[in-house]
Each structure stands twice: as structure tokens, then as C-alpha cells.
Amino acid sequence: MKPNFKHYGSINVAPFLSALEAIKPQDWSKYTYRQDLFPMHNKTQTIPVLYDTDYEIGVSKKSSFYKIFESSIEHATKKISELTKSNCSIIRFIITNLPANTVVDEHRDKANSFKLYNRVHIPLITNDKVLFTVGEETINMPVGEMYEINNNDQLHGVVNSSNQDRLHIILDWYDYTKRTAI
Question: How far is CA 111 from CA 4, 117, 153, in A?
Fold first, then answer.
């Protein structure tokens, strides 16, 4: 059985933060599909970069934000390949904001793609009062640390009990030479 959290290692978040400077405050409210369809995410905001509203199997759509983050995606792809000794192909890449003093209620993800792809979180802005729970395990993810989470039909949620917004990259990837998650 896969662990709840798998720590890959560190990544330099400067390229991601630099790309985020091009995002305007109103951009955070343009994409509401995730919040509208999944009530547990109703307090979050999302910048979709590579996304699929159905979480199906295959390559996602490039959003209008893609060009801003294209080199950041390449940076993440290279780092994941290096740390996991695999041939990483990123199929989804979003940036989420969990505002200060809010939660993502515990829930289970049911999409078939979660059985096939590796779901990785990269904290860009966070602090020690942000806690992520999967199953019976709760951790704090420091900035720049990459964690795969096992959200395949597992109860999971996030609590941000700080006065600071939390920004995470959430990406899904697989090893394209094996056509499966590792």
C-alpha cells in the first residue's frame, strides 16, 4: 500500500514565485469550476495552468496562464525526474490559494485518474500553522518541499489556522516510459 505522504525532496520555488508576479488579483476569481463542483474547495481560489475539469485520463488543456508558467512546469518536470529517477510527464498543474483561517474539509477523491497518476504538492507560501491530513497522518509541508499525497479514495483535508494565505502547486504526473504512476 502506498504511504499517505511521500517526500521527494526540495525544489527551488523562485521560478514559480517569479511567474506568479504576472498574476493579477482578479485572475484568482476567473476559474471557479473546482470550487463550484467540489464544495470542500469552495473557500479556495485556483489558477489553472494545465487542467482537466473532469479529471480524466490523458493530457489536460493549456489555460491562458500556461505561457506564464511554461518554464516553471519544465523546472518541476526536470526536478521530479531527477528525484524519482523516472521520466516525468506532468498532465495537470494548478496553483491553489487557501486563504487565512480557512479549511478544505476532509473528503475523498474518486476520479479514476488518481489511481494512475502521482499527485504532488509544492508549497510556495505557507507556515507552520497549515496542516495537511491524509488518513490518520497529519503533516506540515514546508516551502519548497515536494510531497506526493495518496489521495486515492483516502479521506484528506487541509487546515490553515494562520493569518496568512497558503499557496500550493498541485500537479499530477506519471512516468511516460512506463505509462503508469510509480
Answer: 17, 11, 9
**CB neighbours of 64 closer than 8 A, spacing ≥ 6?**
none
pTM of the model: 0.91
- For residue 141, the SS3 value is coil
Residue type at 154? Q
DSSP-assigned states of every residue in 102-140? EEEEEE-B--GGGGTSEEEEEEEE--TTEEEEETTEEE-
3-state SS assignment for residue 40: helix
Start-to-end CA span in the chain (Å): 12
Q: What b/e string do you get for 144-157 counting C-beta neighbours within 10 Å, with b at 16 or more? A: bbbbbbbbbebebe
pLDDT tens by residue, the chain, 182 residues: 678 999 999 999 999 999 999 999 999 998 887 777 777 788 889 999 998 766 666 668 899 999 999 999 999 999 999 999 999 999 999 999 999 999 998 888 776 666 778 999 999 999 999 999 999 999 999 999 999 998 777 899 999 999 999 999 999 998 888 765 54
